[in-house]
């Protein structure tokens, strides 16, 4: 019999998972009888051999092959499997993973129809019994890895389609990073023509095979379809995967794989894309996962680094931009192996202990991560919604640690801290007197007195209990060399340092600390958002801040700005943060007395920003690309236009969407499209500059393994006489959001057999209107749904989900051209997006013709 697809499965000690894998093949919609299944056992010591033999004896299309000697990795079993294959197409599947029911049919039909060499889909991951999809692989596959992650996310939304075709890899060189062997089908004649094989006896063999295949292929098709499910939650005793073992032999083998790919790239004139788009990330991954925290001897590490040197040097020659481990690239380029080994030894991974491995395996959701913290009130109020906060005070920090068992210790350059019992409705307030951590975080080099004893005890506790420690110095760069009081010595005692000024990173590096990252301010969207509470004034400029006499240049800028505003016939309101405190260095000049108002609590500041359409910002630091006032982000997310002095960082992010008043003779809004600028800035901050993003960045930087969540959106289309299936498919494809599902709703079950057949042929899900409630169990808090027509803007869903960062999920969201950021009600489902928790209630009302729901307009 001529089989349609050969499926090659390498087997080693997977008795607990092999049959589940096989069951997924029995269920294939292409027909089990059309599959040739080749099981190659690599000398298993459990019952895997017996399982293979049992199925081989019963099913003609299952072939068991048994190697005489264990090869150690999957390369040889896969090569042997290819020798036994007889069909025109090959699929490689791991024995503990499963194929989706329609996987073979989708891949086979597409590679036949397109006459391609490779067709690939995507995969999901089973993690603690949850099936999740990670967008990182897709973003890596279709965007330039040399760009910032923010730019890559934006570019991904613009280029991504549910089906993409390339005549060769040169049409999309970023696709070199699209790994995931089991999500692909290969034309066997193509593999044989180019003599493509898996390297044997070394890990990383699948990467070499895929790389060689991708650069030789003529015809590559990508489908946004889940093909297989990767099992990331094996807990049997044999789950010490060879892919993750860190001994000398395995590490040298990994480098062999990289060197093979390097040679192939040179032969095929693909050296530049290989180095830029693949090798850099491979070397960072290798360093982070197999060198840092490894108990290799000096001689073993030296042998590894000498073998790796050509790879690091190749990256250096191409001037690859590396943020993580840049010093290692520099040292290996000039063959300074001793210094490189010392550098690697100095890096402390947050997950290199048994205790922390158990935490990692829990894969906490971000909001469930417990963070012990020392912060001033402003920072606490900014971050408090991003995790479970554990507030520390000097007198009871040990009790807090023992009771709550935090996952991370996060300390900032706090001057006072705040008292937990003085909080108001969950909001931290600045104490009228010295806070609990006054003078206990930084150092005064003039007095030479030490007040940090409790902090040192906390760090010692964290070190003994393998709790990663994070320090954020928000006073950089202004206080870096301040002898009166600074936080540098304190920061150097933590595992990880984050600084508001990326320009200070090299200063920390020169002091022997290399786990240093930039961390900007952001906006707390729960507090600062565009919800429109009242009409805003357009003849008023609002400023909330302080006068700092010690910063002469800042004071000169403030005087210049205040005068320009008043001379331009605008009113001015100054909310003085030091109002009534009579501090001599914090008193505004007398001529502005009539414009000064008392300070407003942090949780009320959004009301201040919304008094006017325009807000003023003053930067003390103007020559940093990452350090500027948090007020910028807070104003923008409050839907307020920003006036500021020029700053490299502000201009780098927002370009001319800010008025730089120090560059102008007077304040003039003529010739500016104010409303569009405000909207551009709003969505920039909603998407990129909020504290959810900042905390995720911290977690990613310290290698904290957590479960990222992505909202799934189901788009329902009502099939009508005026709406064609082709129009629905085209519109659905245009929606700029990757995690979407399509369901067509049919109103009448009679006379639609032709439609049913067409929908089934097109692989489109459909449902009768009367049966909608049968889907109620498919929706939860992380799902959304919308009944759309083809007029919905392609970016509406993406924008709506950004607003749900601050908006209650009890409201639907609808686009409105005129009334924006207002609440309303509606009696129609059309083009309103809802959270999944509302599905049963909303659809119930809809089917009973008594729909009335609360919505938010954007």
Q: What is the 3D form?
A: globular
Radius of gyration: 30 Å
In DSSP terms (H or I, runs of 4 or more residues), the helix count works out at: 29
Structural class: alpha/beta
CATH superfamily of the largest domain: Spore Coat Polysaccharide Biosynthesis Protein SpsA, Chain A
Average pLDDT over all residues:
90
Low-confidence regions: 233-241, 348-361
Per DSSP E runs of 2 or more residues, the count of β-strands stands at 30
Strand content: 15-25%
CATH topology group of the largest domain: Spore Coat Polysaccharide Biosynthesis Protein SpsA, Chain A
Termini, distance in Å? Answer: 60 Å
Tally of discrete structural domains: 5
CATH architecture of the largest domain: Alpha-Beta Complex
**CATH class designation of the largest domain:** Alpha Beta
Please give the largest β-sheet.
10 strands, mixed
What percentage of residues falls in helices of 4 or more residues?
25-40%
Structure description:
With 858 residues, the protein is of the alpha/beta class. It folds into five domains: 5-238, Spore Coat Polysaccharide Biosynthesis Protein SpsA, Chain A (Alpha-Beta Complex); 248-346, no CATH class; 354-518, Rossmann fold; 537-687, Rossmann fold (3-Layer(aba) Sandwich), CATH 3.40.50; 712-857. It is built from 29 helices and 30 strands. Strands 1, 2, 3, 4, 5, 6, 7, 8, 9 and 10 form a ten-stranded mixed beta sheet that branches. An eight-stranded mixed beta sheet has the order 25-24-23-26-29-27-30-28, with helices on one face. Strand 6 and strand 7 form a beta hairpin. The longest helix has 21 residues, at 271-291. The N and C termini lie far apart (60 Å). 41% of the residues are buried. Residues 233-241 and 348-361 have low confidence and may be disordered.
């Amino acid at each position: 019999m001529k089989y349609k697809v050969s499926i090659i499965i390498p087997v080693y000690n997977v008795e607990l998972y092999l049959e589940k894998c096989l069951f997924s093949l029995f269920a294939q919609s292409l027909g089990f009888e059309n599959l040739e299944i080749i099981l190659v056992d690599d000398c298993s010591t459990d019952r895997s051999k017996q399982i293979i033999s049992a199925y081989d004896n019963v099913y003609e299309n299952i072939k068991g092959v048994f190697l005489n000697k264990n090869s150690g990795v999957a390369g040889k079993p896969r090569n042997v499997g290819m020798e036994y294959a007889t069909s025109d197409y090959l699929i490689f599947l791991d024995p503990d993973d499963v194929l989706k029911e329609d996987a073979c049919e989708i891949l086979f039909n597409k590679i036949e129809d397109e006459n391609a060499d490779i067709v690939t889909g995507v995969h999901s991951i089973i993690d603690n019994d949850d099936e999740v999809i990670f967008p990182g692989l897709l973003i890596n596959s279709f965007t330039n890895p040399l760009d910032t992650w923010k730019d890559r996310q934006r570019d991904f939304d613009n280029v991504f389609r549910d089906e993409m075709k390339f005549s060769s890899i040169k049409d999309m060189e970023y696709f070199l990073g699209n790994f995931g062997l089991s999500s692909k089908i290969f034309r066997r004649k193509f593999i044989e023509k180019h003599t493509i094989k898996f390297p044997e006896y070394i890990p990383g063999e699948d990467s070499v095979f895929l790389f060689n295949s991708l650069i030789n292929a003529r015809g590559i098709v990508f489908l946004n379809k889940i093909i297989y499910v990767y099992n990331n939650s094996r807990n049997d005793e044999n789950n010490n995967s060879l892919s993750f073992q860190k001994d000398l032999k395995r590490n040298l083998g990994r480098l062999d794989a990289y060197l093979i790919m390097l040679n192939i790239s040179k032969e095929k004139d693909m050296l530049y894309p290989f180095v830029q788009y693949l090798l850099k990330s491979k070397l960072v991954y290798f360093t982070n996962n197999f060198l840092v925290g490894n108990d290799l001897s000096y001689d073993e590490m030296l042998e590894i680094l000498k073998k790796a040197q050509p790879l690091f040097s190749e990256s250096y020659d191409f001037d690859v931009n590396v943020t993580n481990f840049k010093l290692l690239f520099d040292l290996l380029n000039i063959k300074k192996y001793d210094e490189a080994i010392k550098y690697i030894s100095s890096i402390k991974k947050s997950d290199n202990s048994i205790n922390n491995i158990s935490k990692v395996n829990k894969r906490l959701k971000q909001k469930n991560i417990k963070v012990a913290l020392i912060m001033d009130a402003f920072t606490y109020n900014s971050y408090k919604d991003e995790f479970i906060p554990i507030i520390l005070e000097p007198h009871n920090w040990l009790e807090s640690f023992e009771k709550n068992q935090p996952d991370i210790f996060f300390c900032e350059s706090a001057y006072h801290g705040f008292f937990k019992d003085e909080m108001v409705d969950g909001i931290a307030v600045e104490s009228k007197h010295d806070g609990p951590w006054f003078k206990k975080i930084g150092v005064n080099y003039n007095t030479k007195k030490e007040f940090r004893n409790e902090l040192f005890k906390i760090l010692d506790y964290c070190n003994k209990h393998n709790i990663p420690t994070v320090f954020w110095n928000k006073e950089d760069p202004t206080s870096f060399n301040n002898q009166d009081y600074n936080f540098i010595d304190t920061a150097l005692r933590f595992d990880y340092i984050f600084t508001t000024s990326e320009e200070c990173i090299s200063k920390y590096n020169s002091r022997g600390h290399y786990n240093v990252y930039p961390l900007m301010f952001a906006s707390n969207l729960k507090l600062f958002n565009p919800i429109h509470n009242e009409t805003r004034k357009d003849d008023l400029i609002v400023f909330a801040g302080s006068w700092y006499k010690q910063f002469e240049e800042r004071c000169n800028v403030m005087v210049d700005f205040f005068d320009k505003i008043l001379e331009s016939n605008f009113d001015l309101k100054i909310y003085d943060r030091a109002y009534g405190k009579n501090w001599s260095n914090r008193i505004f000049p007398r001529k502005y007395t009539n414009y000064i108002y008392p300070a407003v609590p942090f949780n009320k500041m959004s009301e201040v920003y919304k008094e006017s359409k325009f807000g003023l910002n003053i930067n003390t630091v103007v020559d940093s690309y990452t350090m500027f006032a948090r007020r910028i982000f807070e104003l923008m997310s409050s839907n307020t236009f920003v006036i500021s002095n020029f700053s490299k960082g502000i201009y780098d992010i927002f370009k001319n969407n800010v008025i730089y008043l120090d560059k102008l003779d007077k304040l003039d809004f003529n010739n500016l499209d104010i409303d569009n600028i405000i909207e551009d800035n709003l969505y920039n901050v909603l998407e990129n500059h909020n504290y959810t993003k900042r905390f995720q960045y911290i977690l990613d930087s310290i290698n904290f393994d957590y479960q990222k969540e992505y909202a799934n959106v189901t788009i329902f289309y009502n099939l009508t006489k005026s709406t064609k299936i082709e129009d629905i498919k085209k519109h659905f494809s245009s929606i700029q959001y990757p995690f979407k599902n399509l369901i067509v709703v049919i109103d009448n079950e009679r006379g639609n057999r032709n439609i049913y057949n067409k929908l089934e042929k097109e692989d489109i899900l459909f449902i009768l209107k009367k049966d909608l409630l049968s889907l109620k169990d498919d929706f939860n808090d992380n799902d959304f749904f919308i009944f759309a027509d083809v007029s919905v803007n392609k970016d509406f869903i993406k924008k709506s989900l950004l607003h749900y960062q601050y908006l209650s999920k009890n409201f639907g969201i609808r686009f409105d051209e005129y009334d924006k950021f207002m609440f309303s009600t509606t009696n129609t489902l059309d083009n309103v997006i809802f959270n999944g928790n509302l599905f049963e209630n909303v659809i119930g009302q809809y089917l009973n013709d008594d729909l009335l729901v609360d919505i938010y307009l954007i």
